[in-house]
């Protein structure tokens, strides 16, 4: 199956809008008030899902039928067996795709939006492979990409290291600042913030619960879990975030 799907002469935004219109997936089903200007069609699939009540699973089914492409459930895919080395992580994030397996010169690629011929041409150029597309659900693809980004950014952690008591800083202010920056929890939170900036997320959710703690990013209006640090670090994370925001760490609400 070739990547040639009849959209080579159309830019990705126009192709997506045409797909949504022809499949009767119109902004009239939006949660938001849509103007009558005719410019209300979304510029990206993520924006459309964010602004409408249409489930990503429904979009994937429609996309699969419209382009006559196979539909795949990403929960059945083991990321460890995917040929991730063939495409740079930044390129995967940029074009929102995932290589599933390679057979000779054919690369099987998971996409949520099949309306991106320029992106597919770019990937073909970098991999020197012919693409065979499989449609997947947008939210599941985002979770896989977030997992890869987390690994690439080094957001893995050692629970014992994060929970270890900190050594008392020396009297010199520069030594004290250096020791604070070198604390495992501080380094971990700095990596979280750096990764969020690189990923272009709009919000970071630090969510303490009774039995677990999770950190989620909001990207394209959707929340994606990034990592689950040990729940006993909730107070330490809150204190560090307050220090970074120059808030009163003694104040609790």
Description:
By secondary structure, this protein is α+β, with helices and mostly antiparallel strands. It has ten helices and six strands; from the N terminus they run ααααββαβααααβββα. The strands form two sheets. It has a three-stranded mixed sheet with strand order 1-2-3, with helices on both faces. A three-stranded antiparallel sheet has the order 4-5-6. The N and C termini lie far apart (57 Å). 24% of the residues are buried.
Features:
3-stranded mixed beta sheet; 253 residues; 3-stranded antiparallel beta sheet; 6 strands; single chain; 41% helix; disordered N terminus; globular; 15% strand; alpha+beta
Instruction: Name the shape in a single word.
Output: globular
Radius of gyration equals 22 Å
> Averaging pLDDT over every residue, what do you get?
77
Low-confidence stretches: 1-10, 27-41, 173-179
Walk me through the topology.
Blueprint: H1 12-22, H2 45-51, H3 56-67, H4 89-95, E1 97-103, E2 106-111, H5 117-127, E3 130-135, H6 138-152, H7 159-163, H8 173-181, H9 184-199, E4 203-208, E5 213-219, E6 222-227, H10 234-244
Parallel strand pairs: 2-3
Antiparallel strand pairs: 1-2, 4-5, 5-6
Sum this structure up briefly.
The chain is an alpha+beta fold. Helix content is 41%, strand content 15%. It has a 3-stranded mixed beta sheet, with helices on both faces. A 3-stranded antiparallel beta sheet has the order 4-5-6.
């Amino acid at each position: 199956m070739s990547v040639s799907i009849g959209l080579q002469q159309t830019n990705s935004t126009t192709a997506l809008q045409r797909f949504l219109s022809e499949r009767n997936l119109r902004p009239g089903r939006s949660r938001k008030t849509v103007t009558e200007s005719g410019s209300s069609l979304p510029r990206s699939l993520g924006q459309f899902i964010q602004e409408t009540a249409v489930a990503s699973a429904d979009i994937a089914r429609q996309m699969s039928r419209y382009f006559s492409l196979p539909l795949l459930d990403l929960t059945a895919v083991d990321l460890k067996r995917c040929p991730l080395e063939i495409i740079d992580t930044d390129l995967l994030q940029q074009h929102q795709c995932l290589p599933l397996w390679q057979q000779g010169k054919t690369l099987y690629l998971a996409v949520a939006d099949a309306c991106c011929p320029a992106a597919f041409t770019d990937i073909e150029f970098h991999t020197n492979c012919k693409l065979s597309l499989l449609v997947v659900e947008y939210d599941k693809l985002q979770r896989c990409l977030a997992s890869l980004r987390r690994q690439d950014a080094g957001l893995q952690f050692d629970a014992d290291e994060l929970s270890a008591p900190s050594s008392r800083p020396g009297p010199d202010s520069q030594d004290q600042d250096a020791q604070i920056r070198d604390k495992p929890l501080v380094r971990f939170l700095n990596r979280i913030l750096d990764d969020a900036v690189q990923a272009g997320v709009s919000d970071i959710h630090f969510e303490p619960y009774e039995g677990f703690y999770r950190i989620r990013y909001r990207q394209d209006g959707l929340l994606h879990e990034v990592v689950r640090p040990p729940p006993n670090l909730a107070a330490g994370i809150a204190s560090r975030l307050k220090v970074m925001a120059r808030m009163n760490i003694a104040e609790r609400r």
